[in-house]
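stage 2 :: seqdesign
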């Protein structure tokens, strides 16, 4: 039992270290922005299914109640109810039949045979819009992944800042020890001890700030993933991944969903032109209905009968409204084609810009790594010199400050390089593919 309790205590003292892929997968599933976008796509799907349903036969059930004393209606109503007698044809009865009521039940089947191509055009418009919205959703996923990537990189930087601050506190404590030792041996003044303690106090203050910033950075991740992870740590970046601009450019136009979506929207506008022309073409439809008539009872059947038919309807608007509507769709199509052409060029520029930023970040990372090693060596030398009275405490603290700064700059450069790498992939539409490998 003691061993189990010890293991539990140790387990609670170390938070789980979660990799980037966990947060990306959770964001793709739970992110509220994506959830909203999925609803938009679902609405487009239902809109398509709604329009597609217009191609199917329509069934109508009607129940109508009438009461009249108009002679012709009286006679026809009684005929439909199959209650006509010879007495109903006497002049006095025909001229003054009295009133009659009727319940008419009608079941109708309407079948669109050819509606000028409008219905199929409407269906194809809705279908292509749905496909475009689904493709745009893929781009929205990449946007969310980039946000998660940046938030994760910020959390890694905040975590490294905590480590830098802890090391700074540890080094400052060592400097206090050196100052006290040097003061006792008469090599240094008591002012050196005070300076070292002030530096230590400031280092502890920065450590608390770094720890708070780390907690905030982790909260930002939970906001994006819409999930509570409890106590956790992020996993450090081991390096800055490599990427080639030629590969980005060769794949971009086949992977950028916002570019691919325009193809579906253009197709939708082409179908819109067909739907507009459908308004000036003949429309053919068929129908069948079955009717029941009763004097006193709804849905009753004193009389009954059916009717079958085929209809032709041809409308022509003298204001040429369908023609102008077609032209409107055509202009929108041309505008979207120009937009697609511009986007293709903008994507190439975006890749060039993102890759330049990546190369700059990579160079900065290499420089920061060198500065960190050099600052570490400078501090080591000055510590040795201070121990033998050949350096001042001010020099020692200045060297420590430079090392702390170099350590943080390296951590920031590693963060910036990884973010630049993600943005380069994002510019080519390859971010999701790469990070979820």
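stage 2 :: out
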């Amino acid at each position: 039992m003691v061993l189990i309790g010890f293991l539990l205590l140790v387990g609670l003292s170390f938070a789980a270290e979660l990799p980037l892929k966990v947060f990306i997968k959770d964001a793709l599933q739970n992110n509220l922005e994506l959830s909203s976008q999925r609803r938009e796509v679902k609405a487009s799907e239902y809109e398509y299914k709604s329009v597609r349903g217009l191609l199917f036969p329509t069934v109508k059930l009607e129940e109508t109640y009438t009461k009249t004393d108009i002679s012709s209606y009286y006679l026809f109503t009684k005929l439909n109810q199959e209650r006509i007698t010879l007495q109903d044809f006497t002049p006095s009865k025909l001229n003054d039949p009295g009133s009659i009521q009727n319940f008419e039940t009608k079941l109708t089947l309407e079948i669109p045979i050819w509606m000028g191509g409008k219905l199929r055009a409407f269906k194809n418009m809705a279908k292509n819009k749905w496909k475009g919205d689904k493709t745009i959703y893929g781009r929205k996923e990449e946007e969310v992944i980039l946000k998660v990537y940046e938030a994760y990189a910020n959390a890694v930087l905040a975590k490294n800042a905590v480590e830098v601050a802890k090391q700074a506190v540890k080094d400052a404590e060592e400097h206090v020890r050196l100052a006290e030792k040097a003061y006792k041996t008469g090599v240094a003044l008591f002012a050196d001890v005070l300076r070292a303690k002030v530096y230590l106090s400031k280092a502890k203050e920065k450590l608390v700030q770094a720890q708070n910033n780390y907690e905030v950075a982790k909260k930002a991740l939970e906001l994006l993933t819409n999930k509570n992870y409890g106590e956790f740590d992020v996993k450090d970046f081991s390096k800055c991944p490599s990427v080639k601009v030629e590969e980005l450019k060769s794949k971009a136009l086949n992977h950028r969903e916002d570019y691919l979506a325009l193809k579906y929207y253009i197709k939708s506008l082409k179908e819109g032109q067909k739907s507009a022309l459908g308004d000036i073409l003949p429309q053919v439809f068929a129908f069948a209905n079955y009717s029941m008539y009763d004097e006193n009872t709804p849905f009753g059947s004193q009389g009954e009968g059916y009717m079958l038919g085929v209809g032709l309807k041809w409308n022509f608007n003298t204001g040429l409204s369908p023609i102008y509507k077609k032209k409107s769709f055509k202009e929108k199509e041309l505008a979207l084609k120009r937009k697609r052409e511009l986007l293709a060029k903008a994507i190439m520029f975006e890749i060039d810009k993102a890759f330049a930023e990546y190369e700059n970040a990579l160079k900065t990372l290499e420089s920061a790594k060198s500065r960190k090693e050099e600052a570490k060596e400078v501090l080591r030398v000055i510590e040795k010199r201070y121990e033998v009275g050949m350096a001042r405490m001010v020099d020692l603290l200045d060297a420590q400050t430079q090392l702390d700064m170099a350590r943080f700059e390296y951590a920031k450069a590693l963060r910036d390089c990884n973010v630049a790498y993600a943005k380069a992939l994002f510019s080519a539409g390859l971010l999701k593919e790469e990070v979820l490998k």
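stage 3 :: structure notes
- Strands lie at 16-18, 58-68, 100-114, 232-234, 283-294, 303-313.
- DSSP finds twelve helices and six strands in the chain.
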